[in-house]
Amino acid sequence: MSPSMHEQLKNVFAELFDCAPEDIPDEADSSTLAGWDSLRHIELMLALESEFGVRIPTESMLELASLDSIAEYLDIHVLGGGR
Amino acid sequence: MLERLTAQTIAQRTRRGRSLLADAPSPPNAGALALSTFCVDLLPPLLAEALERAGRPAASIAVGPFGQVAQQLLAPDSGLYRQAPDILVLVLAVEDLLEPLFMRAPSELDPREIGALVSSRVEELRGWLGVALGRLQEMTCYVALVGPATAPLEHVLSPLAPERARDAIVRLGEEVRGLAQLGSRIVVVDWEWHIRSLGTGALSDPRLWYLARMRLNPAGLAALAELVARHVAANDGATRKVAAVDLDGVMWGGVVGEVGLKGIELGGEGVGLAFQDFQRELLRLRDVGVLLALCSKNNPADVHEVFAHHPAMVVRRDHFAAERVNWRDKATNLRELASELSLGLDSFVFLDDSPFEREWVRGALPQVIVPELANDPAERPGALRTATHFQRILSTEADRGRASAYQIERHRRDLAASSVSFDEFLTQLEQRVTIELVSDATLARAAQLCQRTNQFNLTTKRYSTAQLEAMLGRDDTELYTLSVCDRFGDSGITGLAIMRIDGCTAEIDTLLMSCRILGRHIEDALLAFLAERAEALGSRLLIGHYQPTAKNGQVADFYVKRQFEQLDADSFQLDLARRRPAMPAGVQVSVPVDA
């Protein structure tokens, strides 16, 4: 998993959650990060699609509930196995 | 004219709207509430931003719980009346207002029912709005009717095809637009009209009009060409006749052979619902005359168990005109299916989630159309609904009857092939008999059976609902209904028994059954139940009567055949201490717990 992916993701999160990228911890997930509810989650998924040019299948949308899992997913699906 | 927006623009507007709502002065200068038949929870920031740009900022914007339009408009303590907004945005989806039309197969709908549905939904709306606008004198309601995204059935193309229900949908649109006539505080947003510009805007170019009088640009012309070609193909009978479908990963999620009946994904929520909707789409296809064929690598027993026992299955086994469930290669199975159905392989479309199987069939049987299947099950119902291979201009009577005709033929074949003995056949039917005490809910049906049953009716007493109701109140009388379910379907309530207990004697006052469940030992199951019940209540003698009519000759010796002793011309008696009627084999019976 690439550190730069985490940085990129934090920027997307920061815009959506209206905070600074530094405020998003590496271990952020939907049970701990304030404001990450089911509706925000949908917005987050759409923002990721638009940002990374991917189409996330319905089932994966349900599973990507942490910064780590999102980074891992994008590493595989955008970067084709990581760099 | 609506502008086509990029994802970036929409995100910017959402952020702007969010900060507007966060910085709202209090008290708000104008509140808005959105109520909808579907989820519009992402609407508030966009609405806030749009209202601001329109010069009419609204500080508080709320969204009511979706699908609760009636409760919100009618209940005096609902969120609507607590908030008392100036602006009520009412968003209604055609698919929600006319739900039966979109959820059921066309064959299950009576066209008159649809007409009545439109009228009653609009009448309701009119009433609800009247109440809300009466209570909140400052409020204006903005009504938008959105959708439908597709016709209830896309497999027929003619705008006159009844399955497209175009009349009902158009009339709903007109009626909702007509709400604007109720007064100036109802504003109808003509959604259907305004969004046209998104389509026509992309398909036309004013420069081409002025330069060359072209009303369509190249994209528009390509769309026109595509549509014309599809209509020509459908009209020439190029429509495919068979959908051959795989099971695991197509009809349900997961591999049933590995995870078992309970492990497969199929149900009313999430991905399970997508699989269920895919099954609904298959039934829609069947409705326009497309034959369904099963082509799966599986153990037949696993598959049959899912069909027989999974509560969320929509497609039944007998919806398939033919099946091949085995471990042979799919090209061989498709060839066999074609010959069994007496159709060419060029009538087949093969639906399988495995890229390997798709490639194999494409290579081996180029005549078969093998569409790509989206990896995400959520994409598939819509794709199947709009698949062009099955489209026709209109569906005919023959189309609609085709699937049933093949189904009957298949049953006959199966029966001939497999029935070693009649009892074995009955066992294979997996008959389940349910006997229940008559309740308020089943009273009317019980009376109807009394009125209508002629042949298998021992005493032919024509009790009315009121008479049966009076009997329900008596301690010495018990009334039972019976229904039968088997592999081919559920009979509904098709039998009735009335038994009167008088100390050591139990008398069967009424015993009747509908013809369509006769000859399957169901009558013996009911008699065995009555005998058990009589004994449990302390009776030793079971008395039955036969009163001849012009039509009930077939049951003249019903009691005699079952070793009852004849007492007089129409009475028969069985001593339960000596002999109790046996529960027939091959019939599972469930009886009331409290009986």
Account of the 3D structure:
The complex is a heterodimer of chains A (83) and B (595). Chain A has a single domain (3-77), classed as Non-ribosomal Peptide Synthetase Peptidyl Carrier Protein, Chain A. Chain A contains four helices and no strands. Chain A has helices spanning 3-17, 38-52, 58-63, 67-77. In chain A, helix 1 crosses helix 2 (38-52) and helix 1 (3-17) packs across helix 4. With 595 residues, chain B is α/β, with parallel strands linked by helices. Chain B folds into three domains: 7-200, SGNH hydrolase (Rossmann fold, 3-Layer(aba) Sandwich); 239-410, HAD superfamily/HAD-like (Rossmann fold); 427-590, Aminopeptidase (3-Layer(aba) Sandwich). Chain B has an eight-stranded mixed β-sheet with strand order 15-16-14-13-12-11-10-17, sandwiched between helices. Chain B is globular, with a radius of gyration of 31 Å. In chain B, 32% of the residues are buried. The mean pLDDT of chain B is 86.
Percent of residues in helices of chain A = 55-70%
Number of helices of chain B: 24
Largest two-chain interface: A-B, 12 and 16 residues
Output mean pLDDT of chain A.
Answer: 86
Structural class of chain B: alpha/beta
Mean pLDDT rating of chain B: 86
Number of β-strand runs of chain B: 17
How are helices and strands ordered from N to C of chain A?
Answer: HHHH
Residue runs with pLDDT of under 50 for 5 or more positions of chain B: none
CATH architecture tag of chain A: Orthogonal Bundle
- How many domains is the backbone of chain A divided into? 1
Give me the Rg of chain B, rounded. Answer: 31 Å
Task: Give the class-level CATH name of the largest domain in chain B.
Answer: Alpha Beta
CATH architectural designation of the largest domain in chain B: 3-Layer(aba) Sandwich
CATH topology descriptor of the largest domain in chain B: Rossmann fold
Binned strand content of chain B: 15-25%
Question: What kind of oligomer do you see?
Answer: heterodimer
